[in-house]
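Translate sequence into structure tokens.
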Amino acid sequence: MPAQISHPKASSYLSIATILAVTGTLLVNTLSNIFPPGGMNVGEIANTQLKDLLILPANYAFAIWGLIYVGLIAYCVYQWNHRHIPVVRRVNSLLIVACVFQMVWIYLFTLRFFGWSILTMLGILIPLIAVYLQLGIGKIRADWHRRWMVHVPFSVYLGWISVATIVNVASALYIANWNGWGLSPVVWTISMVLAGLAIAAIMIVQKGDIAFALVMIWAYVAIALRQSSTTAISTTAIASVVVMAALLILRWLKKKPAQFGR
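Result follows.
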């Protein structure tokens, strides 16, 4: 059992700050959809200014934010009951940073500061990677509560932000009319899709992270559906889904004998 810290008040304050950060992020996200600062919310921008972006997923894919927030709420409950544990304190500090950057990102993106929004997206991604490493997801065996209230929520969150970062960079380049160094938009989109596949493959093979992989599969199916008129991109996305599914099955088969032999 991890040693508890010697400053219970400090851990309680940090725990409350974490709850407030998650609540604030949820409120800002909700209000930005109802009263978007720039006149259009994120979805409306995606369907107008970015409608021809070749890596954009179908609209339904963004419903995953509901699952992400449910997971973060579950984590808030967990961390309050375990707020004196050092690793929980470290995760809380990182999550607060990610939440602050996410609130800033929403305003920058809805105000169409696409270039600056990349920096804030990295401000979400980097703390989440640090959280993932702090928790030892894929390395440390977790009990039921920790798995479903901590590990899975952060795997889902990191998985979606990984996809969102790729799309965010593509959005900024698209708005800036980047010429792609002479390469066609289709070639660059395929390259980004394959980069995402490589990330997912690493997470499956090295971490056995099913939740992360399922988020990537969710996003890639949505990309294939929205970009169905561009055969090269939709085919690459579907092929990537098949590869991820195959890796998940192989990972499961590899673990199965050891579990059966216990």
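Note: Residues 1-6, 257-262 have pLDDT under 50 and may be disordered.
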